[in-house]
Amino acid sequence: MLAISPSSFLIIPKSSQVRISSALNPKFSTIRSSSSVNEAVLENRQPESSADFPAIKAAKRVVLVRHGQSTWNAEGRIQGSSNFSVLTTKGEAQAETSRQMLLEDSFDVCFTSPLTRSKRTAEIIWGSRKEPMIPDVDLREIDLYIFQGLLKHEGEEKFGTAFRQWKLDAPNFVIDGHYPVRELWTRARSCWDRILAHQSNSVLVVAHNAVNQALVATAIGLGTEYFRVLLQSNCGVSVLDFIPQAENKSPYICLNRLNQTPNSPIAAGSSAGRKASKRIILVTHGSLVNNEANLPRLGNQPLSMLGSIQSQKTAELLLDLKVDTVVSSPGKASMETAQIISKTQEAAESLGADSVPRYVNVKEMKDLDVETMLGQLKQGAAVDSILQPSLLDGLGNRILSPVWDQTGKVWQTLLDELSGSSEVVVVVGHPTLHIALMTHCLNLSEQWLGSFHLDEGSISVIDFPDGPSGKGIIRCINYTAHLGRWSIPITKPTLDEEEMN
After folding, report:
1. Residue 167 contacts by C-beta under 8 Å, 6 or more apart in sequence?
2. Residue 413: exposed, middle, or buried by beta-carbon count in 10 A (0-12, 13-18, 19+)?
3. Tell me, which fold does domain 270-483 have in CATH?
4. Which of 156, 179, 194, 458 is at 20 to 30 A from 381, Cα to Cα?
5. What is the pLDDT of residues 247-273, one digit of tens each?
6. What does the entry list as the binding residues for substrate (predicted)?
7. Model confidence over 95-120: pLDDT tens digits?
8. 485 exposure class (CB count in 10 Å sphere: 0-12, 13-18, 19+)
9. Has residue 16 got a pLDDT over 60?
10. Same fold: 60-260 with 270-483
């Protein structure tokens, strides 16, 4: 049985359940959008489906995988729910990489889109497993009707106004009398009922770009205005954890990982079909020296040997970019990680005979210090990388609001930094800091803090195709594949099974 640690989540105290429940229960969800839509309207908007998620009796982990590159992906054709496209040689190789990534994982069942490109990806990943594969028609890609099969420039030439609306305002895009994105959100919500009702603890779902976006968004209570905000690359892996509540209530839901890809998450590529001109990379410090269960893990301790290895691996991954500035929390572990990144960048530049030494600026930003705040939550109590429910119980806004307010100011400071000459801003800090920054990026409220999870040594990437004044696109969350043998397994249990009973 899959076992998941409650310490992996920021779960809301009983005293704040009415206010916080929107993060975990779409029935009460309030959506705030970073799009140009009137935010005053969005603040009172309900998700497409207001029904509760089915109650579950045991923890369930759902792993979403997008299919590998298809022939129509390579040609630049609009696929939609058509079934004429098949995997390319590259797509087959990507699926094989995903198979290797998930080789040691024990899945109880695989739900798959019936379309050939996804079904073939699922077959490669599933390999010789004996457990069943269940095709679900609602997992097909978004229905794009008369657009399907057109090259993108043909769509623009033949359906100028409609195609522009599809690109710029997809939630309100109408074609052949249909609203494809709205229909997709309804389908995704329907899929969750069947996935959660299945008697399984670990589920693999292999489908498509848009439908996987909709599955992630509907799970954590985001509406159609978040279409193209949570990136899904070919064979990208995303992970959602569902934690049961008592009294047949909807489960707690947490996005454990988003878009862990076979390729580097910082390699050149597009975000939502456009080149990103600016980028923020959130680097979580590595493992700490004092990591026992009865000691705080707040980043004020130095890195352990494992933490140093994790930080070096992250520094090597970032060599694909030219980093000029690293912004760091004043915590010891964060500053050590920032210095490792800086020195690795500088050393790489000095390897050639004609090289010119380059200095990477490390800025210690006191406002990034959430560790001190967290350390004051409850004196003498153990604090995990992500806050435990027992520590939050009864503390309510007194804990969440100061962290939330401070990180909101930090987010604006980072956007200002990005508005200057910097193409990339690397931010090193505590997991809770980065969770809050991503939540600010998405224009959500503190109610969503419990909807995300980060591991030590992970990176998360936010792209800005329209610059820092535009919408941030989440390229990946909690990416750890760069850690090699020290990476975090996709479905590794984090608590002994008996402790979940």
Report:
1. 273
2. middle
3. Rossmann fold (3.40.50)
4. 458
5. 888 898 999 999 999 888 987 666 656
6. 66-73, 117, 152
7. 999 999 898 888 999 999 999 999 99
8. exposed
9. no
10. yes
Least confident of 52-61, 381-390, 454-463: 381-390
In the structure encoding, which two tokens stand for residue 384, read together?
């995990």
The one catalytic residue among 48, 141, 371, 456: 141
Listed in sequence order, the residues at least 6 apart from 72 whose beta carbon sits closer than 8 Å to its beta carbon are 78, 79, 82, 84, 85
Distance from C-alpha of 160 to C-alpha of 165, rounded to nearest angstrom: 9
Backbone angles phi, psi at 419, to 5 degrees: -70, -15
- Does the annotation mark 285 as catalytic? no
- Residue showing tokens 């704040």: 16
Residue 415, φ and ψ in degrees, nearest 5: -65, -40
Domain positions in the chain are 60-260, 270-483
The class of domain 60-260 in CATH terms is: alpha beta
Residues 463, 24 contacting (CB under 8 angstroms): no
Residue type, 423: E
Give the span between the Cα atoms of 286 and 304, in whole angstroms.
8
**Residue of 39, 43, 48, 67 marked catalytic:** 67
Tokens of 470: 């535009």
Nearest-angstrom CA–CA distance, 350 and 277: 27
Catalytic-residue membership of 141 = yes
Closest to 77 measured CA to CA, from 68, 89, 67, 85: 85
**Alpha-carbon span 429 to 449, nearest angstrom:** 16
The binding site for substrate comprises 66-73, 117, 152
What confidence score (pLDDT) does residue 44 get? 32
Q: How far is CA 48 from CA 44, 206, 251, 469, in A?
A: 13, 23, 19, 28
DSSP 259-316: EE-SS-TTSS-EETTEE-SEEEEEEE---BS--STTS--SS-SPB-HHHHHHHHHHHH
Q: How far is CA 101 from CA 98, 180, 262, 277, 458, in A?
A: 5, 33, 9, 30, 16
H, E, C per residue of 316-355:
HHHHHCCCCEEEECCCHHHHHHHHHHHHHHHHHHCCCCCC
Q: Write down how long the chain is.
A: 501
DSSP one-letter code for 154:
H
Chain segment 269-289, per-residue pLDDT in tens = 666 566 777 999 999 999 998
Which residue ranges make up the annotated binding site? Answer: 66-73, 117, 152
